[in-house]
Write a structure and sequence with these properties.
two-stranded antiparallel ribbon, disordered C terminus
C-alpha cells in the first residue's frame, strides 16, 4: 500500500481504543433506558377489588358523578364532623371508595375542598380502621399528577406516614409504605425529601419484621412486594441520582429480596439495582463489593420469564459501562453463557436489543474480553441481529460490530469478517440514522485496513451491494460520512494512479494542475 494511502487510512481508522468509546456511549443509551420506564410503574393506585366496592361501568360512573356531586360535598362535610366520630369514619371510608374508582377518581375535588388535612390528621387516630382508610385515601391522591402528589406533601403527611411503617398492624404499615412510594416516585426532589425525613430507618425495621421468617402468609407477600417497589422508587432517577449513603442503607434489603421466590419482588428489586448501577464507577463498585452481580447472573441463567430478565440485564449492562476491571468481574461470574442461553429462548425477541447493547459494551473493552464473546459463540448471533432484527436492535448490533473492529486484534477482526461482519455493516449504510452510517463506514475502514483481509473485505462489499451504497454516500451532506465514503472508494476501489484525493488537512478536494494549453484542470 502506498504511503499516501497509509496516511489516509491512519486518519480515518481507530488504531487505538477510544476513551469516549470506552465510556460506552452513556449518553446515547439513556434513551434506550427511557423507552422502557413503563416496565416498572412509578406510581400505583390501590383499586378497590371487593364486590361492594367494585368500579362502576363508564356509563354508571358518569351518571353517578353527575347525580352525586352534592353527596361528595356531604362526604367532605362528614370528614370535618369532629363531634361525630362514626360519621367521620364513614365519610373517610366513602372518600377512600370514591378515590379508588378505576376511571377518573375525583382527586381534585377532594383537594379543593380541604379533605387532605383531615385525612392526615386521622393518621394519628387510635382507631386503626380509620387510620387504614385515611392512609389508603392518601395513597390514591398521591398516585395522581405531580400537583396532586405535592398537595399531600404540603399537608405534612410524610412524617406521620413514616411513623406508621413500624405499626404492628401490617395492613396499615403496607398502606403507609404504598403512599410514600407514590410520593418518592413522583420526582427526584420528592424522593430526596422522603429520604431526608428518615424513611429508611423505619423501612429497615419493617423489612426485618417481614423478612425474619423464610415463609410468608399471603398478606405478607403483598407487603414484601410493596417494599421492593418502594425501595426501587427511592433509587429511581439519575438527575440527580440517589445519594450513595442512602443506597448503602438499602443494599442489604434489596440483596435479600433477590433470593426470594416471589417473582414480583425479585423483579422490582432488580429494577432498583438497575437504577443504582446507572452511574459512575464508585456506585458500580458498591454493588460488586456486595457480590450482587453473581446473583443477577444466576437469575439470567435460571429464570425463564423475560420480565425478570430485562432489569437484570439492564443492571449488569450498567456495570459493564464501568471500568475494564468491573466488566471483567461480571464476565467471570458467567454472564456470557447465560446470554447465550437466552439467544435461543422463545422470548428472545423481547430481549434482543438489551442483549445486543450489553455485548456492544463488552466489545468496547479489552481484546481478552472480545475474545470471550467470540469463544461464547455469540458473534454470529450479533451479525444476524444487525441484518435481520428490528431497527433499534440492529443499531445496537452495529455498535457491537464497530467496537470489535476498533478494539479487537487483527485475528479477531478476521473472525468477524468470516461471520458476515462486512455484510452486516453494509446493510446499515442506507438507514435513516447518520451516526449509525458513520460508525459503519468507520468499521469498514478498520476491517479493510488489515492487509491480510483487504481483498476479502472489498470482495464482500461488492458482492452484498455495499459498493453502490458507499458510492452514493460520497454525496452525503454530512462531512464525516462523505469523507469516510470517499476514502473507501479512493483507497480500495479507485484507479491505481488517481491523484485526486481528499486533503488530510482541509477536507476539500485537490485537483492536479496541468500546463496551459493542455486542457486546463483534470478532474
Amino acid at each position: 500500500m502506498s504511503s499516501k494511502n497509509e496516511g489516509r487510512i491512519n486518519k480515518f481508522k481507530n488504531t487505538q481504543r477510544n476513551e469516549t468509546q470506552k465510556n460506552k456511549r452513556r449518553d446515547d443509551i439513556v434513551q434506550l433506558r427511557k423507552e422502557k420506564r413503563n416496565d416498572q410503574l412509578q406510581k400505583r393506585r390501590n383499586i378497590t377489588s371487593s364486590t361492594d366496592d367494585a368500579p362502576l361501568s363508564p356509563l354508571q360512573e358518569n351518571n353517578s358523578l353527575n347525580r352525586s356531586y352534592s353527596n361528595m360535598q356531604d362526604v367532605v362535610d362528614g370528614l370535618h364532623a369532629d363531634l361525630d366520630p362514626v360519621l367521620q369514619f364513614e365519610s373517610t371510608k366513602e372518600t377512600r371508595k370514591m378515590l379508588s374508582t378505576e376511571r377518573n377518581p375525583p382527586i381534585q375535588f377532594f383537594i379543593e375542598n380541604g379533605a387532605i388535612p383531615k385525612l392526615v390528621q386521622f393518621l394519628a387516630s387510635d382507631n386503626q380502621e380509620l387510620v387504614f382508610q385515611a392512609a389508603w385515601a392518601l395513597t390514591n391522591i398521591a398516585s395522581g399528577s405531580s400537583e396532586e402528589t405535592k398537595a399531600v406533601v404540603e399537608a405534612s403527611a410524610i412524617n406521620p406516614l413514616i411513623d406508621l411503617l413500624t405499626s404492628s398492624n401490617f395492613n396499615i404499615a403496607e398502606q403507609a409504605m404504598w403512599a410514600l412510594g407514590n410520593i418518592a416516585g413522583d420526582s427526584p426532589n420528592l424522593r430526596d425529601f422522603v429520604l431526608e425525613q428518615g424513611i429508611l430507618k423505619n423501612l429497615a425495621i419493617l423489612a426485618e419484621m417481614i423478612l425474619a421468617t423464610p415463609k410468608y402468609e399471603i398478606t405478607e407477600i403483598t407487603l414484601i412486594q410493596n417494599l421492593a417497589w418502594t425501595l426501587s422508587n427511592l433509587c429511581r432517577n439519575r438527575c440527580p441520582p440517589t445519594k450513595i449513603e442512602h443506597i448503602m442503607l438499602m443494599l442489604p434489603m434489596l440483596k435479600h429480596m433477590l433470593y426470594l421466590e416471589d417473582i414480583k419482588t425479585v423483579t422490582d428489586a432488580l429494577w432498583a439495582f438497575s437504577y443504582v448501577t446507572d452511574g459512575p464507577a464508585p456506585r458500580i463498585q458498591a454493588i460488586l463489593n456486595d457480590d450482587v452481580h453473581t446473583r443477577m447472573v444466576e437469575i439470567i441463567g435460571t429464570v425463564n420469564e423475560s420480565t425478570v430478565i430485562i432489569p437484570a440485564i439492564r443492571a449488569l449492562g450498567n456495570i459493564i459501562t464501568g471500568t475494564d476491571d468491573q466488566t471483567q468481574v461480571v464476565l467471570e461470574a458467567g454472564l456470557l453463557p447465560a446470554i447465550l442461553n437466552w439467544t435461543n429462548h422463545k422470548d428472545a425477541r423481547n430481549l434482543q436489543k438489551e442483549l445486543a447493547w450489553v455485548l456492544s459494551n463488552i466489545m468496547a473493552g479489552t481484546s481478552y474480553q472480545i475474545q470471550a464473546v467470540i469463544d461464547a459463540q455469540l458473534l454470529p448471533w450479533v451479525t444476524d441481529l444487525c441484518l435481520y432484527a428490528d431497527f433499534k436492535t440492529r443499531k445496537e448490533a452495529a455498535w457491537a460490530i464497530t467496537n470489535l473492529s476498533s478494539s479487537g486484534t487483527e485475528d479477531q477482526r478476521a473472525v468477524l469478517i468470516e461471520h458476515g461482519g462486512v455484510e452486516a455493516l453494509c446493510s446499515m449504510l442506507d438507514v435513516p440514522d447518520n451516526k449509525i452510517i458513520e460508525i459503519c463506514l468507520s468499521a469498514l475502514l478498520n476491517l479493510a485496513g488489515d492487509e491480510r483481509q483487504q481483498d476479502t473485505v472489498t470482495l464482500n462489499i461488492e458482492r452484498c451491494g455495499g459498493l453502490d451504497k458507499v458510492e452514493e454516500l460520497q454525496n452525503h451532506v454530512q462531512e464525516t460520512i462523505y469523507k469516510y465514503a470517499f476514502s473507501i472508494i479512493d483507497t480500495y476501489f479507485g484507479e491505481p494512479n488517481d491523484e485526486n484525493v481528499v486533503s488530510s488537512t482541509t477536507g476539500t478536494f485537490e485537483f492536479e494542475e496541468v500546463e496551459p494549453g493542455t486542457g486546463g484542470f483534470r478532474f
